[in-house]
Amino acid sequence: MATAGSSAKIYINGRLIGFHASPEKLTEELVKSRRSGKISSIANIAYHKDTNELYINTDSGRVQRPLIVVENGKSMITEEHLKQLTEGKLSFTDLVKEGLIEYLDSEEENNALIALDEKELGKAHTHLEINPIGILSVVSSMIPYLQHNMAGKALHGAKMFKQAIGICGINYNLRTDTEGYLLYYPQKTLVKSKTMDFIDINARPQVQNFVVAIMPYYGFNTLDALILNQGAVDRGLGRNTYFRMYEGREQRYPGGQADKFELPTEETVGYLGEEYYKKLGDDGLVQLEQFVNEKDIVIGRTSPPRFLEEISEFGVVKEKRRDSSVTTRKGKSGFVDKIVLTESADGNKLAKIKIRSTMLPEVGDKFSSRHGQKGVIGAIVPEADMPFTAEGIKPDLIINPHSIPSRMTIGHLLETLAGKAGCMNGNIIDGTPFNSTPQAELEEILKERGFDPSGKEVFYDGVSGEKIEGTIFTGVVAYRRLFHLVAHKMQARSRGPVQILTRQPTEGKEKEGGLRFGEMEGETLVGHGAAMLLHEKFIEDSDKVALPVCEKCGIVGWNDVVRKRKVCPVCDSSKVYDVEMSYGFKLLLDELKALGIMPKLSITDRA
């Protein structure tokens, strides 16, 4: 047994099990044993030279990927193996068993030198990629020409696949999700990745192919803002439906009482007035295809009283029911799309109302390409004012040239070129990362079709009709409409409800809350010396309160209504004055008193 001082620590699944004098030799032997099938093919052996530790991992939860084993600068898989694979004499599992392919996790991969291509192989290489696309996840490998993008933008692009509005499922009309989206006229992408075929994404498309010009437009697309063509929007570009589900149930209560779907009568406690219930049928449910505004009632329901009524002098109890109707949420009007009447798991009557709203692209809505080039609409321009080419082509979308250099999304530019070539040739271009159609080939297609191989075109200004100086890079890019709709985010408040504890405005759009002006925002006002604005935001617009404070002992007193004077609870002084403060501060004083600390305020005359 080797001594702990000079030897490497050996860990199995994170547990120290012993020491070894020659860890590099041990690593070599263990890897050979794995390749020969003596130990499991899913075990990973990683030696960390800097810390002199050997980690052996066999536990679950590790992400592994297959790589071809390389020895002496040569791939272990020969032409003979490939031939046998094609003929079906060998399977992938056989190659793993023979030790020609092995699974590496991220820890063992740190000690490996992996070649992307067989041409790159040298003496130092330990493994070879089966295909470089194996480096990427399913989502990120769907980004065309990804190898030309910066890693950060690849992550952005992958994240926004999950936010894209498309077809969630062909049974969308039967589903009762809380909320859902459906894109009108979704299209296949003109530039695809092989991964898209594997997961069959074109059966549920989530993009539309936009004609995109990269140019500024009268300052409306400053920074990341986008310009949309009004004509294209009128033809259905970027249009979608938003579905919202509302549900109500006839709850049963102890004592045999229950809620009831019905039209509330005037005797009902909390009756709102006849006009509020006019859209409901006799069963208390809203009519199909009826238009409902925000805060309209969709399910009329009454509930039994919270407390038992007293018996009247005649010994009769008239139950006064209360209104507990279900209303639509703020800012979410639409048509009644579907009404489902069923039974819940506990046997109660359950009603579900599905509201359908058509959402047209508007200023503030978010769009994104697959390369993380996201932006909100800055203006929707009439088709007559859009720039046009000599052939009369008008772009659907204009993006700013400044959004490209700092983001280094060259993949976006290549997709623009490839989309244009695909349109001209009438076929779908392969943009699979590391296996994509080369730029030279795309340029050749454009040249054959009579276009400038650079993808640039001469444009004329739609407003003045004059020729625009210089040429504009234009092509076709698959753009996604994301579910960040400005109509669902708009929020404003002047006066409204406050929290009971702090008396500060409530939080959240649904509760008619305010926008939090926090500490950091307050610091900016301090930095600008805007003392009056600071006072207004933190006191006047928040939780201003005037409390009587004793000048002598600095303690908050109270108003004695009977004797009509302000009273100090400690010294009974007559010098008690109203002091303006935040209610949150008064709450802090109360909490300190509860802890046994006596806070005192030193007050002086206002200068």
From TrEMBL:
A single MF term (Gene Ontology): zinc ion binding
Ranges for domain RNA polymerase Rpb2: 10-71, 92-124, 513-601
Regions crossing the membrane: none
Keywords of the record: Cytoplasm, DNA-binding, DNA-directed RNA polymerase, Metal-binding, Nucleotidyltransferase, Transcription, Transferase, Zinc
EC number: 2.7.7.6
Alphabetized Pfam families for the sequence: RNA_pol_Rpb2_4, RNA_pol_Rpb2_5, RNA_pol_Rpb2_6, RNA_pol_Rpb2_7
One of the record's GO cellular component terms: DNA-directed RNA polymerase complex
Cited function: DNA-dependent RNA polymerase catalyzes the transcription of DNA into RNA using the four ribonucleoside triphosphates as substrates.
The protein's name in its UniProt record: DNA-directed RNA polymerase subunit beta
Annotated organism of origin: Candidatus Iainarchaeum sp
Gene assigned in the entry: rpoB
